[in-house]
Amino acid sequence: MRVLRVFVGLLLVGLIGAGSLLTWLAAFPSIDPIQPLARSTFSPELIKKGEVLAAFGNCAGCHTKVGGEAYSGGLSLPTPFGVIYSTNITPDPETGIGRWSEAAFRRAMREGIDREGNFLYPAFPYDHFTKITDEDNKAIYAYLATRKPVRVDRTRNELSFPFNIRMLMAGWNLLFFKPAVFQPDPAKDEQWNRGAYLVQGLGHCGSCHSPRNLLGAEKSDQDLGGGAAEGWHAPALNVASPAPVPWTTDALVNYLLDGWDEHHGIAAGPMTGVVNKLADLAEEDIKAMAVYLRSLQGRPTDESQVKGKVASARQRDLSLTKSANAATPTATKLERGEAVFARACVNCHRAGTVSATQPVPLGVTTSVSAPDPRNVIRIIVEGIRPPKGVPERSMPAFSSLSDDDIADLVTFMRARFSEQPAWNDVSLQIREVRRSAH
């Protein structure tokens, strides 16, 4: 009993000590409010630069709810810990950031602390935005400060205990966050460093394309090693990339510019919006990002390797037929899946079809070779709304297919068009996609 009391006492002392430390760490001063700034405060060139950067950083994408006014917040952001609602970043003086100085804005971007000294949650990716230069922060600030002010009451977050205690972010930051402006790698050239700055910083690609630990922090030792976004699998962009055909720099440029490449297919899901936001970014910046991302995937791609992979995928498509036998009660899962494919898919997904919008062979698409079936299932259920660069490359939804038909179809596609092992829990993934489909 005495030992138990000693243990409990030591535990309480530890908790009090930890709480005191967190309280001390959490003490950030507020920054004095300012009067909202007139548009004439900033040059047109600076505002325009900020507009391009804000689009690239997808500020409106997170800070605008469906049906809401641009940048006025209120978008629900589901997390494993509850729902966070984005804030109003219009220059409204009461409910937005109209009273934030440039210094306050820079602190939020670089340290994750708001004007009043409160911790921000990392659903706002300050762990990436910390890398942004003062010059780029100034431009984004100028652009946001000159938007239409929108007065809107803030929606309270719906986080479970203890994650609703902002002070705990002090400990999270201590463990997982280090404020640091991007520093160029002297061993790399200017183009590579520009790409690294854009991908690691304002582009915050790792927010979706990196795996996270139990506390929601990106796993630093698996940077861009594959993650999740809005119920979609975000494939690895490093050496672990599941793409059947190796990415080249030109292929990455095509994909980032238009959302489509002939050896990889089309952007879908959240990536569609990302590609659309890249439209105003300078082509040299797109090329820099492609150069950097390509460098993460190992040695340069051999052109003959690309041609061989594509030829193999096309050969598999050539044998597809519209006359597959209808599934019988004793048919195997693969036979049933082939019958569904013949009924619903083969008209478009068959090599030899002459069409300006002919889809790429399924065997070269990353979704069919990905580590889980989420993306294939979502594309079947939701269809594809194409990026602006390739508006003709849409795909209708096949949500009317039964869950069993989709399971058989997905199983067949994996076996027929991929060299990877069969997926597990396909039926469970279908149910989850059905629940969240929109």
SSE blueprint:
Layout: H1 2-25, H2 44-56, H3 59-62, E1 76-79, E2 82-85, H4 102-111, H5 126-129, H6 134-145, E3 158-159, H7 169-176, H8 190-200, H9 206-209, E4 227-229, E5 232-234, H10 249-258, E6 260-261, E7 265-266, H11 270-277, H12 283-295, H13 303-318, H14 333-344, H15 366-369, H16 374-382, H17 403-417, H18 426-436
Antiparallel strand pairs: 1-2, 2-3, 4-5, 6-7
Helix pairs in contact: 2-6, 4-6, 8-12, 10-12, 14-17, 16-18, 17-18
Protein name: Cytochrome c
Subcellular location: Cell membrane
Keywords: Cell membrane, Heme, Iron, Membrane, Metal-binding, Repeat, Signal
Describe the structure concisely for a colleague.
It contains 18 helices and seven strands. With 438 residues, the protein is mainly alpha-helical. Helix 2 packs across helix 6, helix 4 packs across helix 6 (134-145) and helix 17 (403-417) packs across helix 18.
